[in-house]
Amino acid sequence: MEKKYVVIVDSMADFEIGFSDPNLVIVNTPVTIGGDDYTDATPDEFYKRQKEVFQLNNQLRRSGKCPIPIKTSTPSPMRLYEEMKKILETGRDAIYVATASTLTSAYQSGRIAVDMIEDDDEKYDGRAIAIDGLSMSALTAVMVRIALRDCDTTDDFIRFIFDRRNDTEHFFLVTEWDAFRDSGRIPPGTLAIATLAGFKPLMRFDFNDEGTRKAFAEKKHRNLRKLCQSAISTLAETIEEKFCMIIHANNPDGASLMHELLINQLPGIVPIYNLERCRMGPATGVHLGHSAIGLAFMRKKGVYENAELHRKTQLPEEAIYGYSFG
Asked: Where are the beta strands (DSSP E) in the chain?
């Protein structure tokens, strides 16, 4: 059903391939490998080339040469402005739910796009709004799907996202360290020890002790099954909605294991799961690599102390642009 608003997200929001909604627009996030554009590449095309480049980069480092860069950037303000303008010309509100501002400058691009709309000579009946979603990947997909299902008006949607973005939870399991090595986010010595020991990290994208949303290592283990079980245990204790989402970059065996363990341990949970369609797109894969698996869900309010710290201190004017609570 068509609503009075349309939601814009960038492709770092990992909806399943082929998902469509008349109230949703997905803007591709620029991705490059070396000088080649992979913005519109399929996951299979991107991860095949990424794996080749990771292997080549290891050789280049050993010979003292610079590795081939694998990069992503946020959609430009002009790109977001163009999408907002199309929506506003239909008389509907345009809402950009940006990837977390602690990870990218997407929210800043959205704010600039809203300013560009405000500076237009043409005046619109609808409103242009940007909101910091404090989310990424399947987190954004789960949160926006629930909001589109439950929120009939723009006001309801904005209030839902602003409040419940604190209650989204995402685990990532990574069996190869190449993406972290290429990004430089982890010291080389730490990577060398972890690789030699055969450790696999369970990454959590959530709030730290200061109430700031970050990606951090929850734990590490040599056994992928135990890492999957750890993520599922957290889900079982805190999940609110009875569905979650399992995604993978190019690791169908890992995603299948996660799905098998989940449905065996929690038969009442209905995961969004499809090995072909539930994939991490290139924009997410740049950061996590071809081996990554993801588990995202919406948890109950009040069960995670660090999220509650953020909820108590968040100010609407810091997270929403082009809109004010009445």
From this structure: 5-10, 24-27, 31-33, 36-37, 70-72, 93-99, 128-135, 168-173, 200-207, 213-221, 243-248, 270-272, 293-298, 320-321
